Amino acid sequence: MRNLVIEPTSKTPKVILNADLGIFEITGRSIPEDAIGFYRKVLDWIEEYSKNPLPETIFKFQLEYFNTSSSKCLLDIFRKLERMHKNGHKVTIRWHYDSDDEDMAETGQDYQALLDVPFELVPV
Amino acid sequence: MKEQYFAEEAAFLQEARAKAERGGMTVQEWRESYTQIVENYENLLKVVQVLTHQADQLEAKLEKARVQLELQRKALSHEVEDLERQVEYQQKEVHKKVQERDTLYDQMGRTRMMLIVLFAVLLVIVAFVAYYIFVDTDKMIQFVKKVRGI
């Protein structure tokens, strides 16, 4: 399947979804006005990928700031990964956050509590 | 656009409503549907709680940033006032210096004019004396004799 790479802007994060190399990353800040428009491609890609995933999928998130609508889109991504996990695939979500950023750590904990998928909190 | 963020939830709600309107389900089917609705409602409640918490965090961050900006604005405003006062003082000083310079130039001009006049007078005297010494020597001799009373 075709890889998805979206370069970052001042309002949107960098997205690397590379099934060939097994790199799945969303990094940077996410404050687009039309978050659903931005994340639609990501959600569609994961939906397609989930039909025939790699033996192990480690999805890295490292966001410094994001708005509420991006948060809902992230939850939608997590739900898709959770579904993959429930379907018997090996999936791990790694939530990287600045060790000084308590809010981002707390956000990761909120997601962790909400999901039924391996969810690791990684301070950097 | 806001409906799109909960498209899946909205679709489920619509389906549940349609199912209820259609009716004709067995007790078991009602129970399953009801359980599914409760599960989805529970999930949605959790999502709303998370989003509300995050929105509060963002608001707190924005408020903190707003307070910092306000403090910086006030500090900058004080600095601008200080700078304006300094500029005003410097302008007065420059004006004073310019006036002093103009006065000095006036004095120098007057002195220069006096020196030119003095030089011209001296030149006339020297020319006058030279004329009588080298050109009209007889008159000069007579003049000297007259002065000495010879």
Oligomer: heterodimer
Instruction: Choose one word for the global shape of chain B.
Output: rod-shaped
Largest sheet of chain B: none
Distance between the termini of chain A: 32 Å
Q: Give, in order, the helices and strands of chain A.
A: EEEHEHEHE
Number of helical segments of chain B?
Answer: 3
Q: Summarize model confidence as the mean pLDDT of chain B.
A: 91
Point out poorly predicted stretches of chain A: none
The share of residues in helices of chain B is over 70%
Would you report the number of β strands of chain A?
6
- Ends distance of chain B: 129 Å
What does this 3D model show about the protein?
- The complex is a heterodimer of chains A (124) and B (150).
- Chain A is 38% helix and 32% strand.
- Chain A has helices at residues 35-49, 68-86, 102-114, and strands at 4-6, 14-18, 23-30, 56-66, 90-97, 119-123.
- In chain A, strands 1-2-3-4-5-6 form a six-stranded mixed sheet, covered by helices on one side.
- In chain A, strand 2 and strand 3 form a beta hairpin.
- In chain A, helix 1 packs parallel to helix 2 (68-86).
- Chain A is globular, with a radius of gyration of 13 Å.
- Chain B has 150 residues and is mostly helical.
- Chain B contains three helices and no strands.
- Chain B has helices at 7-22, 27-135, 137-148.
- The model of chain B has no long low-confidence stretch (mean pLDDT 91).
- At the A-B interface, helix 2 and helix 3 of A face helix 2 of B.
Condensed summary:
Chain A has helices at 35-49, 68-86, 102-114, and strands at 4-6, 14-18, 23-30, 56-66, 90-97, 119-123. With 124 residues, chain A is of the alpha/beta class. The model of chain A has no long low-confidence stretch (mean pLDDT 93).
